[in-house]
Amino acid sequence: MRTALIVVACVLVSAMPAYAQPRPAADPVDALLRQLERVINAKDRTGFPSLFDAAVSKDLVTQHSYDLFLPGAVRTALFERSRGPLEGAPVGDGFRLVIEFFMETPGRARIVTAGLDVRRPTGGDAASWRISSIDSISAIDGLYKLRLNPAPLGVRNLELRSEDVIVSLQDGLLYRVECELGVTGMVLIGRGELRFSPASATERGQLRIFAGTESLAAAFETAYIRISPSEYDEFVATAAFSDAVADSRSARRAQDVFNRQSPKSFGVDVSDMSRDTWHLVPTGDDFLAEVDTRRYDTLTYLRSNQQAEDVSLFRRDDRKTIALYPSVAKLAARGRFYSEDSSREHVVLDYAVAASIEPQRQFIRARTRLSMRIRSTAVPTLMVRLADALAVSSVSSVEYGRLLHLRLDGQNMIAINLPRPLQQDSDLTLVIEYAGRLESQNLDIDTVQSEAPPSSNQLAEAKYLLSNRSYWYPQNPISDYATASLRLTVPNDYRVVASGEPIAADNAAASDPAPPQQGRTFAFQANQPLRYLAFVASRMTRVAERKIDLGSESAGAGSDPMTITVDANPRLQSRGRAAAQTADDILRFYTSLTGDAPYASAALAVTESDLPGGHSPAYFSLINEPPAATAPTWRGDPAAFDGFPDFFLAHELAHQWWGQAVGWKNYHEQWLAEGFAQYFAAMYAQKTRGERVFGDMLRQFRRWALDQSAQGPVYLGYRLGHLKSDLRVFRALVYNKGAAVLHMLRMLLGDETFFRGLRLFYEDRRYQKAGTEDLERAMEIASGRVLDRFFDRWIYNADLPRVSYRSTIAERSVTVEFEQAGPAIFDIPVTVRLVLANGQTRDVIVPITDKQITRSIPTDTPVREVQINRDSAALAEFDER
User: Fold this and answer.
1) How far is residue 67 from each of residues 70, 83, 254, measured CA to CA in Å?
2) What's the pLDDT score for residue 268?
3) pLDDT tens by residue, 365-395
4) How far apart are CA 517 and CA 509, in angstroms?
5) Residue 865 contacts by C-beta under 8 Å, 6 or more apart in sequence?
6) Alpha carbon distance 757, 217 (integer Å)
7) Closest CA to 428 of 351, 494, 501, 370
8) Burial call 534-549: b when 16+ CB within 10 Å, e when fewer
9) What is the 3-state secondary structure (H, E, C) of 20-35?
């Protein structure tokens, strides 16, 4: 028998409703199951064999009795989850069942899942049904009831310590939270303090943004703690205890804390099987503290060994992540860098999605097939991500039939219990059917921020977008690259643009789940791997379609020409037609830089929105355009470039390379998508709009980077601006500073070396995820230089350099001297502009790679003036001395 333990910190797990269809009042199969339930509850081992067909071996029956008769059980409830015809049996005389047994002792429970074959002998009556086979027994174990011990302990000088945190109770009461294994938690009441002091300078910076100090100290009167029972004695070893008499007020207060906090973490909701509340137990060094502070409301500290970054401090109520980082032990085990893929138990090789979509209702009904391969050893349970709003009606596999699944509440996740552990490199095909109302994805991150509300009497044409943050189809919780096919049916007046190359589809849509009575089907095939699937449905018209030959270098797109299509809302048709030509030019330019076009087609959906912005899944780009009569103002946004109206199109098309063909290993590496897309857009502006527009963009990159760098390093990814709910900070640093860093790297290495390294990086990581260390390695191979310090200063740290300088003009030379302030040395390529006597200018790049640098620049023409960093390329403050 196989046992699986699902350990999920800070979530709730709920069982899905039973799948059994309505049965006739005198259902002989149900009568057999109820008899089985009675035999188990009566602990009647002698009656157990009588439920089996005589052909089943006695040894097998005995073995299954050990599985189903749990010692000490006070209740076993049996639930039929699915029923299908039994192969080889006459119709109606045999069924294949999936049965779930909920087995409960006074303080512990387990869920056992089994496949049962039941059949009636030829000519037998209703009472002759027997179990002909039972196999694929599996279990979810380790479910415990928690209880609050009503007898408090008086305590003084209690200090509960985990990494970088101390929860202390100077004087008060300790109520023990107990389970069958011992004390697994505490409720603290009295005079206490939470002290959190992260060792990481980056996390101290985030704490300063949140609390105004780099070390948080917050008084509290109540706290709820969860620990491993084996760790209790060690946690409380230094405290002074005394017997205490609980007054009714303290007892009620402790019970209130327990009732309020205990369901929030390690909780398992199996309400369709039990009226009681069940929990998992923390293991190892896991530590959870829910602290009701006076100043910051309830703060949650969590140390969870299951996470790649296993130390966190957050506030649940407003979903604010205050700190998130790896412990010392985790760093020692895995090093500085990590990939989210390292914890992936399976990969999805191919998706096949058939969906019926009602855009006006924002409703989707779908069936998705996932072709999977197991990567870990002996996987008992599969985790699949799917939006909470979507109700799952069926989970099955080609190999095992109907499967039990549990919904993880609030986590957009389902856990699928397998009939047997799957071994490494084995294949599995899942088929999941689901439906529900799912709101269109908001493009807040990808849209500029307006200084004033748009003024227009026109309502933007509605669109329905489901993409990477919608979890609209079942997918690996850790994104992976996979091929895919999509078959999407919408009402007749809608069009769909989606991931993949458009392919022929008949409008009958017979294979789609519950297609609309009046609808048409759009089909797409993604033969090149992609990170996620997306679609947008709106009232659009095809306004352009062309094929372009990107040349022999575009090996990734195949030998056929690349197809560009443009669909646009009715009021944006002229803009859509203009975008087709611009997209052609952009795609040719980017391919010349990378040597490859990663996808064989590029579709544009030009749709109306109050503010400009965009989104770019693989194979297509969504471009938001304000209606003609709308006059929004967005000059105060880092991504607003007045002199470059094609910015959003250039930025989004760059994501086909950066963010799609090359993904990122974890959220820290988002700059490899956004910084690269921003810089490629700037290079396209330089090519088409000239040096003035390019210079304006560099100045904007620098201004925002200098203004916002104190909010944290580029490496913080989505967390930049998170505590202030200000997405401009994210764009200022991940977009603009990331682009500026790439430009400085180009200046430092030179064009030939930089673009050679760029191609090496792209070729090495195409259709894979990448980290900053991968980019660094490619650039070091191309240049023969060690670049640790460059990336450490500009990506992993938030500080900016301050440089003093002096210039001396001689008859045939100019001497410039630079000195960096502070102990940290940056690698800073600085443009020294010589203004000649004849009015012409000459730019010389001087790399500042030490604390003091002196450079003599020979000149043949008299120099009138020396200007430092007039191109705004260097992210440093300069002071003339």
Assistant:
1) 7, 22, 39
2) 76
3) 999 999 999 998 888 889 999 999 999 988 9
4) 10
5) 834, 835
6) 47
7) 370
8) bbbbbbbeebbeeebe
9) CCCCCCCCHHHHHHHH
CB of 675 closer than 8 Å to CB of 738: yes
Query: From CA 657, how far away is CA 767, in angstroms rounded?
Result: 9
Which tens digits make up the pLDDT trace of 590-645?
999 999 999 999 999 999 998 888 999 999 999 999 876 665 666 678 888 888 99
Asked if 137 and 42 touch (Cβ cutoff 8 Å), the reply is no
The full DSSP string for 77-132 is: EEEEEEEEEPTTSPTTSEEEEEEEEEEE-SSEEEEEEEEEEEE--TT--GGG-EEE
C-alpha count within 13 angstroms, C-beta hemisphere, residue 233: 2
Assess contact for 667 and 717: CB atoms under 8 A: yes
3-state secondary structure of 711: helix
Quick check: 34 pLDDT over 90? yes
- For 627, phi then psi, to 5°, come to -55, 160
Crossing angle, helix 751-765 and helix 772-783, to 10 degrees? 130
d(CA 399, CA 384): 18
Q: Rounded to whole angstroms, what are the CA distances from 756 to 682, 750, 797?
A: 19, 10, 26
| Inter-residue contact 298 to 315 (CB < 8 Å) | yes
Contact 392, 374 (CB under 8 A): no
**Residue 535 in tokens:** 């679609």
Six-digit token string for 9 = 């910190």
Do residues 803 and 816 make contact, with C-beta atoms less than 8 angstroms apart? no
Amino acid occupying residue 731: R
pTM of the model: 0.90
Place of tokens 């299509």: 565
Q: pLDDT per residue over 858-879, tens digit each? A: 999 999 999 999 999 999 999 9
Instruction: Report the DSSP pairing between strands 562-568 and 541-548.
Output: antiparallel
Token code pair at residue 53: 């067909």
Q: What does the chain come to in residues?
A: 881
Q: Name residue, tokens 């230094």.
A: 238
In angstroms, the CA 98 to CA 113 distance is 7
Distance between CA atoms of residues 472 and 385, nearest Å: 9
